[in-house]
Structures are given as C-alpha cells and as structure tokens.
Amino acid sequence: MDESEKVRKIWSDLGLPGIVDVHTHFMPKNVMDKVWQYFDSQGPMIGREWPITYRADEAQRVATLREFGVRRFSSLIYAHKPDMAAWLNQWAVGFAKDTPDCLHTATFFPEAQAAAYVADAITAGTEVFKAHIQVGNYDPNDPLLDDVWGLIEDAGVPVVIHCGSGPVPGEFTGPDPIAKLLVRYPRLVLIVAHMGMPEYSDFLDLAERYDNVRLDTTMAFTPFVEETMPFPTGEVNRLKALGAHILFGSDFPNIPYGYAEAVHHLIDLPGIDDTWRRAVLHDNAAKLFGLR
Questions:
Q1: Which side of the chain, N or C, has fewer Cβ within a 10 Å radius?
Q2: Conformation bin of residue 267: beta by default, left when phi > 0, alpha when psi is -120 to 50
Q3: In 3-state terms, the chain is what percent helix, strand and coil (to 5)?
Q4: Where in this chain does the record put each Amidohydrolase-related domain (predicted)?
C-alpha cells in the first residue's frame, strides 16, 4: 500500500469525504527555495537536521495533497521584513484562483501600510491569514497592527498564528503576548499553530477561555517533536474535551517524515474516539471555513 492509499484509508474508514489541512505552505518559488535552504542549513530557528520530505515542484506538491484526499489546504505565506507582505498577498490571489481547493491565504507585517493591504485582502476574499511571530520577530501588540487586528476581528477571518516558542524561543513568542492581544480583541478567530508547542498547557487555557481560539495539530505528537517538546500526558483529557477547538495541520511540504505518519500519530492518541478524529481531521475546519 503506497502512502496515498494509507492516508485515504484513514479518512475513508472514518466515513469522511477527505481531510482539511489548515497548515500547508505554498509560496513563490524563490521564497520557498530560500525557506528550504534555511532548513537545509539547520539555521538557528531550526537547530537540528530537518530533511524536507516533499521537496518537489509546485504542481507535484498540489497533486500529492490531492492524491492524499486533502479536500482543502492553505498556502501559508508570511513576511519576515517590511515591504514583503503585500507582494506575497498578490501572489496568493493568483495561486488561489488557479488552485480552487486552496483556501485563499494572506499575511501581514507591522508596517504603516499594513491596514490598507489587509483591507484589500479581505475585500479580495481572503479566507485565512498567516502570522509568524517567531520568524517575523515582532510583537503582535505592536501599535502598527492595531487597525489590522480590528479589521480581521470585524471580518471574522481566521488567523493561523505561529506564536509558541518552538522550535526555539523568540523575543515575542509564548502565551503572554497572545493573552494580551485577546484581551484587546476577544472576538479574534485565532488558530494557534503547532498546538502552541512547547507551551501547550498555556494555549489550551486560552482555548478554554475564548470560544474563537483554536489550535492546529501541526507536527505535534510525532516522534520528531516528542523527542524535545513532548505533549504533556496529563493534558490528554483536556485535549479530548476541547476537540471542537482542534484542527488538523501538517506543515506540508516542510516535514521531516511522511504525511501518513503525522496522521497516524494524531489518530492513535490514547483516549480519543472516532467522533474526535472526524472533527479534528475534517469537520471542525469544514465548519469554520464553510465547506460542504
């Protein structure tokens, strides 16, 4: 059985029409090439060997997700410096148009023009934003983002936000800046990437406190992550209880193991049932993004 058959068997055995993966990356080729070069060099935000399993051209990567039966996925772009986000957003418009099973994705960075291009992105039909606090090295409460968060909150567009301190801490990572942000914008629909690793418990707290806070499972529970940032066994019951707040994410293509492995480590968690599995692999995201 090849990998696509293994993945399809998982969701078909659960009676699902496929998987919704909220955390995948598609970017302009020159940007993706630089990302891969950074992983290859084991840069300071990586700190360990990290082979890219699905290193292929864009068309092949899209085809691979479709072969897995991924119904919807994202093109999580992110800016690490000024004057980059608007250009990435323009690229993402074209990618979403050419790839109808990709959620229309956009990003932002703390800069004077951010509110204007975020407003344009919302008008253009953006379905999900990506914010990368670690790579961007910015405070989510930067005053330059005040209007941005207000626009996104009012529009109800979800934001996949890498704000946990894994794989290495950043100046503005961790739960405290996000807790402060949510006090100011309590209606924000935030999807905390990577379950907030390694501050899992703190981000579960936020998901309990705010109805619109969700966590994606990206890389969590896999042996690769469990070696250094294990999910606390004492939180499994709370993870189960918060099933409506958990969404599947993979980090495809930038994962150092197979897609089927990631799915299996999620669905094999102790104490969960098929209702939880169906919700996390498909139903929660389908509801959030209005998929039929």
A1: C
A2: alpha
A3: 50, 10, 40
A4: 20-291
